[in-house]
Specification:
The chain is mostly beta strands. The chain has strands spanning about 1-15, 15-25, 25-30, 35-50, 55-65, 85-95, 105-120, 125-130, 135-145. The strands form two sheets. A five-stranded mixed sheet has the order 3-9-8-5-6, with no helix packed on it. The protein has a four-stranded antiparallel sheet with strand order 2-1-4-7, with no helix packed on it.
């Protein structure tokens, strides 16, 4: 399977289409003090080939920091329970319509919106996208203080 990906301000997958606002971002401007609250989306279009229809597949989006560690949301000091690392996982199964011929693929859009996500530090991050457990792409972005 092939996949097209983009970081954007907001995305929506509806009616077999992908609607994107503020596409192709890689800089997120935040306040100087933590938590650094960000809102962004990973927009994806998976090309499901004829021979991959009628079977379960999984797309996963994880966030990593610049050291390659999984990112967990910021929590205030003194909070005993730490949240789980940020990970979104969706399982999908695309049928094979009668008009689909061998060698042909179907486009399946996805929108993964992360709204009001509190992060603890500035710097470089990556949204890592996997298909069926194999990494297919890293989308880097940087948190910067708004001047």
């Amino acid at each position: 399977m092939e996949i097209d990906l983009m970081l954007c301000d907001h995305a929506e997958a509806a009616e077999s289409k992908l609607f994107i606002n503020g596409g192709a971002i890689n800089l997120l401007w935040v306040a100087p003090q933590p938590p650094h609250v960000v809102t962004f989306a990973v927009a994806a279009v998976v090309q499901v080939p004829y021979n991959a229809t009628n079977q379960a597949h999984t797309i996963t989006v994880r966030l990593l920091d610049e050291d390659g560690n999984p990112v967990v949301p910021w929590v205030p000091e003194g909070v005993p329970d730490q949240p789980a690392p940020i990970q979104i996982e969706v399982t999908f199964n695309v049928g094979r319509p009668p008009v689909l011929t061998p060698g042909e693929a179907q486009a399946l859009p996805f929108a993964f919106n992360l709204q009001g996500l509190p992060l603890s530090r500035l710097g470089l991050y990556s949204a890592v996208v996997e298909l069926d457990g194999a990494e297919v792409r890293r989308l880097p972005f940087r948190l910067l203080v708004q001047q």
